[in-house]
Write a structure and sequence with these properties.
Structural class: alpha/beta
Oligomer: single chain
Radius of gyration: 18 Å
Order of helices and strands: EEEHEEHEHEEEEHHEH
Helix content: 25-40%
Strand order of the largest sheet: 5-4-1-6-10-7-11
Distance between the termini: 36 Å
Number of domains: 1
Length: 235
Amino acid sequence: MTQYHVLIPCAGSGSRMKSASPKQYLPLNGKPILRHAIDIFEAMPIVSQIFIVIAAADAYWSDELLQGCHKTKVLPCGGESRAASVYQGLQALVSQVDSEDWVLVHDAARPGIDAEIVQRLIDAMQAQDIGGLLALPLADTLKRADATKHVSATIPREALWQAQTPQMFKIGMLEQALASCLERQPTDEAQAMEWAGYSPKLVLGDLKNLKITYPHDIAVVSALMQATQSEQDTQ
C-alpha cells in the first residue's frame, strides 16, 4: 500500500530575516515557526512519517521542539542548498521507505499550511500524474527591471503561477531527478522534475501558506492564520 511521507528541509540560515537564529525557530503565535507545520502533519492519519533535515552542526536545534511528536524524525544531513538538503534527506530515508511511496516536501518557513490544503494536493493526484505542487495564479502585473531599477518590460501574467509547498512526488523519481541536476541548483523540487522531462501538476494553494522570508512576513502570516482560526471558531 502506497504511503505518504513528509520531508522538511530545515538547514537554511534565513539570512534575509536578519535575526539572531534561523527563521524556522523564531516564535509565531506561541510556538516555533517550524512546529506549526509539524503539528499539522502529525495530526493527519494519512501521513506515515515526517523527516526534518537539519544541518549536522545546527546549534539552534533542540529535541524539545519535537516534544509530544510521534511520527517525526530528525535527519542531521542538511546540505548547503535547499536542493542538496532534500536530496541528502531522501538518501538518508530511502532504506526506511519504499521508492514508490509519495514524499511531500514542505518549507520549514510555511507555518500557514493546514490539513485541508494538504489533502487537496493529495486528492488531486491521478494515476497518470507524476506529482505536483501547490501554487497560486499570479494576480499582479509583473515588471522586469533593468540594471538601474527602471522598468524594461511588462510580463503578461496569464498562465503564471507562484509556487508553494508541499511539492509531492514519488520518492525514487525525485531522488533521481535531483541527483541529475544538483550542480544546476534547482530552486524547488518541481524544477528538478521539469529538468528531468516531467510536467508536475499545479494544484490551487492558499494565501495563508505564505513563505516567511523577511521580518514583516511574520506579522502578515500571523494575521492570516489568526483570521482563519477565527472563521473556523465561528462556524
